[in-house]
Design brief:
- By secondary structure, the chain is of the alpha+beta class.
- Helices cover 26% and strands 37% of the residues.
- It has helices spanning 2-26, 96-131, 137-168; strands at residues 35-41, 43-45, 50-59, 62-65, 71-76, 83-84, 89-93, 172-174, 179-184, 191-192, 199-202, 207-214, 226-231, 236-245, 255-262, 273-279, 289-293, 298-300, 303-309, 315-319, 321-326, 329-334, 341-346, 356-358.
- The protein is elongated and about 130 Å long.
Length: 359
């Protein structure tokens, strides 16, 4: 009996000690200093509704240079990045066969010219004799036929020369306009094939944006509209004008091509990705756009969130679903309430549940 009483006593003491320990833990206070933060209110914009679309910058004047003949590349006279003037020789292809044809055509022209001149003399002489009744009509007809054939042979030889000269323009590739060499697809000694690109040239003084707009929004895009073009890599916004709207999405997977010419092109390069904001007409059903600053966003893997302020002044991380970007602000589709405030900067490292004080 004493043994059981002893065990019960020990169990009672153990429970008492455990309860005292838990009371001590629950009364531990967080003595860390609050982090000083700046906050901002969520903004709404219904006065300036926009449609947003992704696009890519490219030069207005751009060309892939190719040839119509097959041959080995003799020499390339330019490198990528070189500025060239219109008409400058950029690349030459081995033209031994063409040179041989040229020599043959020159010989044909010389022969045809001599035959034509000789037949012309005969034609003039027999015409004079016929007028003096010293030659028959048959003789004049024969001489006239020879003269016409000689003239036709000379014209054919000259047209052959024009064809050869045209082929020479495809063995000596020249710049079609003032620009910059942006790509080289072949090296000296390689075989050039008809239709395959050899060099790429762009004119760097004027750029345009090619944006893809879905069919649900294309009817709201109007030619001549001024748009904002956000270059994400440069954190820069430029102004452009819609100059062309495609009327077919047959070959673009339901996306309609919209062309925007940029007004200023300082510092931009071909190939940069952009976000284009098309202003659209406001309607009664146009919803308010909830916007937050892009600088306040937190990125963790594929998730994007923002720190908000809780009722007891603690940082609360909220994950968001984002929409379109408008300059330095981004649309929030879900994850925030209109009356909440969010942290835009902090004088320390924030974490979920951190104590904060608003500056």
């Amino acid at each position: 009996m004493k043994k059981y009483i002893y065990k019960i006593t020990l169990l009672t003491i153990s429970i008492f000690i455990t309860s005292c320990g838990s009371d001590e833990k629950s009364t531990v206070k967080d003595n860390s200093s609050p982090i000083v933060v700046k906050v901002s209110s969520i903004t709404q914009d219904s006065d300036n509704p926009f449609l947003s679309a992704s696009g890519k910058i490219e030069a207005v004047n751009s060309a892939n240079l190719s040839t119509r003949i097959m041959g080995f590349v003799d020499k390339i006279y330019v490198n990528v990045g070189d500025k060239v003037k219109k008409g400058k020789l950029l690349l030459s292809i081995n033209n031994a066969d063409l040179e041989a044809k040229l020599a043959q055509v020159n010989a044909n022209i010389t022969e045809a010219t001599a035959a034509y001149q000789n037949s012309e003399k005969d034609y003039n002489r027999f015409t004079s004799l016929f007028n003096d009744n010293s030659a028959s009509q048959k003789e004049l007809d024969d001489i006239t036929a020879h003269y016409s054939m000689a003239k036709a042979r000379l014209e054919a030889a000259k047209q052959m020369m024009n064809e050869i000269n045209a082929q020479f323009s495809y063995v000596n590739i020249r710049a079609p306009f003032n620009g910059v060499i942006t790509n080289k697809f072949i090296d000296a000694g390689n075989m050039a094939n008809p239709g395959e690109p050899l060099l790429e040239i762009e004119s760097p003084d004027k750029f345009q944006v090619m944006a893809m707009v879905p069919e649900s929004q294309i009817s709201q895009i109007i030619i001549g509209t001024k748009v904002d073009v956000l270059i994400k890599s440069l954190n820069k916004t430029l102004t452009g004008k819609v100059v062309e709207v495609s009327t077919s999405a047959k070959n673009t997977g339901g996306q309609y091509l919209v062309k925007i010419v940029l007004e200023k092109t300082d510092g931009i390069l071909s190939g940069m990705y952009v976000s284009v904001q098309f202003p659209v007409e406001k309607t009664k059903t146009t919803p308010n756009v909830v916007l937050v600053s892009t600088g306040a966003l937190i990125h963790k893997g594929q998730l994007t969130g923002i720190y908000t302020v809780s009722q007891n002044n603690k940082a609360l991380l909220r994950w968001l679903r984002l929409g379109r970007t408008f300059g330095d602000k981004v649309e929030v589709l879900s994850g925030l309430n209109i009356d909440e405030k969010y942290i835009i900067s902090a004088e320390g490292k924030l974490y979920n549940g951190a104590k904060i004080t608003i500056k």
